[in-house]
Amino acid sequence: MTDASATAARRPGEPALTALGLAAPGPDPADSSPHSFPGGGRWRTEIPSCEGPEALAVVLEESARLDVPVHRISQGSGVWMLTDAEITEMVGASAERGVELCLFTGPRGTWDTGGSVRTDSGGAGPRARGHDAVAGCVEDALRATGLGVRCLLVADEGVLWTLHRARTAGLLPADTTLKVSALIGPVNPAAYAVHEQLGADSVNVPSDLTPAHLTEIRRVSAAPMDMYIEAPDDLGGYVRMYEVAELIRRGAPLYLKFGLSRAPGIYPYGHHVRDVALASARERVRRGRLALDLLERHGAAGDMAPLGSRLPGPLTRFDTPA
């Protein structure tokens, strides 16, 4: 990455628009998030949908080739779709590069037998249906952390609270972090604060939230936020690269999540979709390079958190039962 300090901070098109008499008002300092990651920095990066060791190898190779710094890699199909050997290989490869590995937990309603998720209302969506689904998520969490995984992705508030209680009780390692999926991401500050209280260490908000919405959230919570800069089609397909600097200003501490629109679905992953998964993994890193290039051109790339950092800092929690 180039030295961002060599480029004066500016908004997209600002010099030309000012010369044409079309300048926009300057940003209001009151809108800026006062928060940052522990150890410094206001943004980290995440490459999602990294479904196994092969995809992880592609992401690490491409990130080195394109000079894309990566803080976290996440997987969407679930712990249960990986063998112990595959998880162990992914843990080792991630640790070697100082990248956090985040695996999804357990059964989800969208793959369950409940018919309501196929209706127009979506029913309960990806949440864990019934005790057995929660138990499956807990089993995945115990298995993954036992193999060295330290970040778990959840799509159910009950599972989030249960895993947080397990962490507090010492059933999961104390340094395990819990990440809320975009599939249930909160859309208002009150809901965001509730997820933090339930044990979330980072929260993936829907990618259609406006910069003003991010400011509203930052008035009540300092929990790290994840946001697709480019979202998969099933999450809207939004491409928001020109907004990256403003999203950081409003939403920090923020994970810039590089998804991919116009790409076939690959969940739950298997070798029948291998070629698509590997090509998509490669292109996600390239999309990250495009977004980081924009940050550099706009003089806004200098606030990246140190590589290898992963913990969220002090957060507010509900009291857990004794």
Features:
eight-stranded parallel beta barrel; alpha/beta; 322 residues; 9 helices
Description of the structure:
The chain is α/β, with parallel strands linked by helices and 322 residues long. Helix content is 35%, strand content 11%. The protein contains nine helices and eight strands. It has helices spanning 14-19, 53-66, 84-97, 130-146, 157-168, 189-198, 211-218, 244-251, 274-297; strands at residues 43-47, 72-74, 100-104, 151-154, 177-180, 202-204, 225-230, 254-258. It has an eight-stranded parallel β-barrel, surrounded by six helices. Strand 5, helix 6 and strand 6 form a beta-alpha-beta unit. Helix 2 (53-66) packs parallel to helix 3, helix 2 (53-66) packs parallel to helix 9 and helix 7 (211-218) runs parallel beside helix 8. The protein is globular. Mean pLDDT is 91; it is low at 1-5.
Tell me the helix content.
25-40%
What is the total tally of β strands?
8
Strand percentage, roughly? 5-15%
State the distance separating the first and last CA atoms.
49 Å
Helix/strand class: alpha/beta
Sequence stretches where pLDDT stays below 50 over 5 or more residues: 1-5
The H/E string reads: HEHEHEHEHEHEHEHEH
Number of helices: 9
Strand count, sense and barrel status of the largest sheet are: 8 strands, parallel, barrel
Rg, Å, rounded: 19 Å
What's the mean pLDDT score? 91
Spatial strand sequence of the major β-sheet: 1-2-3-4-5-6-7-8
Form type:
globular
